[in-house]
């Protein structure tokens, strides 16, 4: 079981006046599964990814791989690789793509130059590129091709987990499809576990088995993809889903009646340097204290993800369950 | 993979060679070459003549026998000057070498060692940068005694801190890049990362700085020798000769002027060469500053060709904007690049039209051309360009500027770049009204507050006094739209207004644009790469490919009645919330057309499943189909309504297509 597990992971930047980019995240990426991580910019998804790749130190909690802390030593095999957003910046412009990929091959099984070249050619073939292009430089290739090269480099490390951070958002729409197909095929073929980060829900829906939604450094809802998409519990997840163009949102007609709902939906995203008290979403929440009276609990208490379906961190998620509890009391 | 390494060096060499093609570069390179040749050859060839003592010709002025004169021992100064080149250049290069090596080490150490030691080194470098070089020279003169060694070390160590600081900065910028993170993940150690990944990427600016540094060292050395702190007799360099010649400057001025001139020429050779190379390395490409700080280029008229005129006569009467045969081109290294190739359309009052296309399809350049904001080397031509019935092709007049200023609004992708960061939002908004509507400051600010409220910015009065960086991305974009509606715009051109924003905020901005359109009857031209988004907001959609409109259709037809294979392919390639997860996504084979090299015939032919010989030979015109629907295709046919058409489901072939 090669699973990646985040346990109460926090990442803080700066000193006393710094900010907490990731705040007590619990998340599991099971073996051979794709977990999609969505949320807006500043929500901490990329920081979480970099923390998993040990590019950013944790300030609390731990990240376990197969139950053991992930602390790779020099020259040791690294079970986790990452693919970045901008392929133009993730490949060294002064190194041929063949050399870049060869660098990713683990030192232990590296072998001589000939076997390394053969491995590079195999990897290029695997991502659908002509093996003859190993001597090309990044400047001579298109964005879509470079993203394939970046994938090949990640695969060179024989990883069991791949972290894909917005890998299609810098690509043109006509190219995005080919990269998504490739990622999906490879993931299934090699039985990789994957943390797939994107702000585009439609893209996440297409690749992910499970979805986690992040808001201001916390995971506010997580669960199996179909359930999250068909029956979202957290109001932020609902807002994200409604914002997908063409997703049945009656959308742009300005005929919203309630001025309170209107004000809340026009509210600014909260500042991660000064997160609001209580539920972090309450200033933008259409079912929160600014719209409905008597919901002061959202201002005061931090909602726990326990006790709701999909681990939704909302006081008023899954109304029936809460009502049931109330009935019991 | 040694061949690949030579290819990289070849690329670098090509850029250095480009520097030689500029006049300054060519002259300075020639100067530098002759100085270096002289430095090597002169001591070998003329040492004898330079040291030949002739007591009968002491302290003579210039004569045919001695062009520069002689010194106090009757030695020929011209030959001494030539031979001195060797020592002068050698010492300058040695000092630069020390400076570069020490600087590189000091600059690289912080990235290799632990954070605390790194910080110490950085602090040391920062103090050293502030330390005067001359003081250092005197210090070393005391330690090593007056002479060459002390001077070389002094100048070397004096140049090292600034070089170290540059190295540190360059390394820091490179360390941020993703490929360094990727190398870290691949288990590449710190030293290897520095050598393999960072140094090659910062070599160019370092080499340029070192070249310029050599020129400065040369001057510094001449100065030290002149002061008597440098080269000691019997050795001599230019500074020494200058020192000796200065005693009799009123009798034999040439004896002092000639070494001075030599120092100036050699110093200039190094400095100018370094500057010339630095300039070509930093030269912007024509496409570099897309949309940033645009300079106006006025569109010029071309002969009208009647057949491409949009035959939308019913719309003409109420047209806000009419464009025919719009071309935008930029000079390129291999002939002109034409990102917009004959675009014709019109916009009715209160109509929302979307322009979609991939990067390089010319959609942004079209928008900039309409706003007359195409950057300088670009040129814009059209057979017709009318805004509110006013011809925009003739020379500009105050009335026209007024009309554009109040009736035409533009919203850019990155609102951070389109506001002046040093001015308050209120001042920037009020400027529009003060300039074009003759309001005074108070009235204009009141109007600005009103407009901010109209775009639903909370606490508008307080917000007016804030600076752009105090606004969040979505708020800034709202303020930008607010600025657009300071006047009474008839048209808002929005270029990817939501691409930089989060999905939930994107929805807010689009809702706002729709509201403004409804309430004020404003026409909107919405440029985006996202078909679904455009279909949601607009009534009509223009699909652009390789600088042309390939299809113009009502938004309601988008899903099932599109005619162009490119439109259908785009629709199928983008996953939405209904996409079948068990099917591979449809892909568009090949890659987008390169605006600098548009193929003959239909530009989409190489990626099109329906393409035949006719398509590769002749370019289809945009032809009227039925009410309002225009398409440029030889084989237009209805999309089947199925998301994945059979022809497009060729992933293997597609992979090859993009790979080749």
Automatic annotation (TrEMBL), chain A:
Give UniProt keywords alphabetically: ATP-binding, Nucleotide-binding, Transport
SMART domains in the cross-refs: AAA
Tell me the CDD domains matching this sequence.
ABC_NikE_OppD_transporters
Q: Which organism is it from?
A: Paenarthrobacter nitroguajacolicus (Arthrobacter nitroguajacolicus)
- Which PROSITE patterns has this protein been placed in? ABC_TRANSPORTER_1, ABC_TRANSPORTER_2
Named from the GO MF annotations, one term is: ATP hydrolysis activity
Q: Which domain of life is it from?
A: Bacteria
| One GO process term, biological-process aspect | peptide transport
Full protein name:
ABC transporter ATP-binding protein
């Amino acid at each position: 079981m090669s699973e990646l597990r985040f346990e109460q992971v926090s990442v803080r930047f700066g000193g006393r006046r710094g900010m907490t980019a990731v705040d007590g995240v619990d998340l599991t990426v099971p073996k051979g599964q794709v977990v999609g991580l969505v949320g807006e910019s500043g929500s901490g998804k990329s920081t979480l990814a970099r923390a998993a790749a040990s590019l950013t130190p944790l300030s609390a909690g731990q990240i376990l791989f197969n139950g053991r802390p992930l602390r790779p030593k020099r020259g040791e095999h690294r079970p986790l690789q990452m693919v970045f957003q901008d392929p133009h910046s993730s490949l060294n412009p002064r190194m041929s793509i063949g050399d870049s990929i060869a660098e990713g091959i683990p030192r232990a099984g590296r072998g001589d130059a000939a076997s390394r070249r053969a491995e590079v050619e195999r990897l290029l073939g695997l991502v659908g590129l002509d093996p003859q292009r190993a001597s090309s430089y990044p400047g001579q290739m298109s964005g879509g091709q470079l993203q394939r090269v970046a994938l090949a480099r990640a695969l060179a490390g024989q990883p069991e987990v791949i972290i894909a951070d917005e890998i299609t958002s810098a690509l043109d729409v006509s190219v995005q499809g080919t990269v998504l197909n490739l990622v999906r095929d490879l993931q299934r073929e090699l039985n990789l576990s994957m943390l797939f980060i994107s702000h585009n829900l439609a893209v996440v829906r297409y690749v992910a088995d499970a979805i986690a939604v992040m808001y201001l450094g916390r995971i506010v809802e997580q669960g199996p993809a179909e359930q999250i998409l068909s029956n979202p519990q957290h109001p932020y997840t609902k807002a994200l889903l409604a914002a997908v163009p063409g997703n049945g949102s009656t959308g742009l007609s300005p005929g919203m009646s309630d001025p309170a709902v209107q004000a809340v939906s026009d509210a600014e995203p909260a500042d991660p340097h000064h997160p609001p008290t209580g539920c972090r979403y309450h200033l933008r929440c259409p079912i929160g204290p600014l719209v409905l009276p008597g919901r002061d609990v959202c201002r005061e208490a931090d909602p726990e993800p326990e006790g709701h379906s999909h681990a939704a961190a909302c006081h008023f998620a899954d109304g029936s369950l809460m009502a049931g509890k109330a009935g019991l009391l | 993979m040694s061949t690949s390494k030579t290819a990289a060096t070849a690329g670098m060499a090509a850029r250095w060679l480009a520097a030689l093609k500029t006049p300054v570069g060519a002259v300075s390179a020639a100067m530098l070459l002759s100085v270096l040749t002289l430095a090597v050859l002169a001591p070998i060839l003329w040492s004898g003549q330079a040291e030949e003592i002739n007591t009968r010709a002491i302290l003579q002025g210039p004569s045919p026998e001695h062009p520069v004169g002689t010194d106090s021992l009757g030695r020929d100064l011209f030959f001494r000057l030539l031979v001195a080149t060797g020592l002068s250049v050698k010492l300058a290069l040695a000092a630069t070498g020390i400076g570069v090596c020490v600087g590189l080490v000091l600059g690289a150490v912080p990235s290799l060692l632990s954070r605390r030691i790194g910080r110490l080194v950085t602090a040391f470098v920062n103090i050293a940068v502030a330390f005067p070089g001359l003081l250092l020279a005197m210090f070393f003169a005391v330690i090593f005694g007056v002479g060459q060694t002390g001077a070389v070390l002094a100048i070397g160590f004096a140049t090292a801190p600034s070089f170290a600081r540059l190295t540190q900065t360059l390394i820091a910028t490179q360390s941020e890049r993703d490929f360094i993170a990727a190398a870290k993940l691949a288990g590449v150690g710190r030293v290897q990362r520095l050598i393999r990944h960072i140094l090659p990427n910062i070599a160019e600016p370092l080499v340029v700085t070192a070249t310029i540094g050599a020129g400065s060292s040369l001057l510094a050395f001449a100065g030290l020798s002149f002061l008597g702190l440098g080269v000691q007799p019997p050795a001599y360099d230019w500074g020494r000769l200058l020192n000796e010649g200065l005693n009799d400057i009123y009798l034999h001025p040439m004896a002092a002027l000639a070494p001075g001139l030599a120092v100036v020429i050699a110093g200039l050779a190094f400095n100018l060469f370094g500057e010339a190379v630095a300039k070509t390395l930093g030269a912007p490409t024509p496409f570099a500053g897309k949309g940033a700080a645009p300079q106006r280029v006025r569109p010029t008229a071309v002969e009208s060709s009647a057949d491409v005129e949009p035959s939308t006569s019913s719309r003409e009467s109420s047209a806000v904007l009419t464009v025919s045969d719009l071309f935008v081109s930029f000079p390129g290294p291999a002939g002109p690049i034409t990102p917009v190739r004959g675009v014709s359309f019109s916009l009715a009052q209160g109509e929302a039209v979307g322009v979609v296309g991939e990067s390089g399809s010319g959609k942004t350049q079209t928008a900039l051309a309409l706003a007359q904001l195409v950057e300088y080397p670009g040129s814009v031509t059209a057979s017709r360009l009318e805004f509110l019935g006013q011809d925009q092709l003739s020379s500009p007049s105050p009335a026209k500027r007024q009309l554009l200023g109040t009736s035409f609004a533009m919203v850019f992708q990155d609102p951070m770049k389109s506001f002046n960061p040093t001015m308050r939002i209120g001042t920037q908004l009020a400027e529009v009204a003060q300039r074009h509507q003759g309001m005074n400051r108070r009235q204009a600010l009141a109007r600005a507050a009103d407009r901010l409220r109209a775009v639903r910015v909370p606490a508008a009065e307080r917000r007016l006094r804030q600076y752009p960086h105090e606004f969040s991305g979505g708020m800034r974009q709202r303020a930008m739209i607010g600025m657009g509606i300071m006047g009474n715009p008839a048209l808002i051109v929005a270029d990817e207004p939501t691409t930089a924003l989060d999905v939930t905020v994107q929805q807010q901005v689009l809702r706002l644009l729709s509201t403004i359109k409804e309430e004020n009857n404003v026409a909107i031209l919405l440029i985006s790469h996202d078909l679904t988004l455009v279909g949601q907001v607009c009534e009509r959609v223009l699909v652009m490919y390789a600088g042309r409109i390939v299809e113009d259709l009502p938004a309601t037809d988008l899903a099932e009645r599109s005619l162009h294979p490119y439109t259908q392919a785009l629709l199928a390639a983008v996953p939405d919330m209904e996409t079948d997860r068990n099917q591979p996504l449809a892909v568009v084979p090949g890659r987008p057309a390169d605006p600098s090299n548009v193929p003959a015939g239909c530009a989409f032919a190489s990626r099109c499943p329906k393409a035949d010989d006719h398509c590769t030979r002749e370019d289809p015109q945009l032809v009227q189909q039925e009410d309002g629907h225009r398409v440029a295709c030889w084989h237009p046919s209805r999309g089947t309504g199925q998301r994945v058409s059979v022809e497009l489901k060729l992933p293997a072939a597609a992979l090859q297509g993009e790979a080749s």
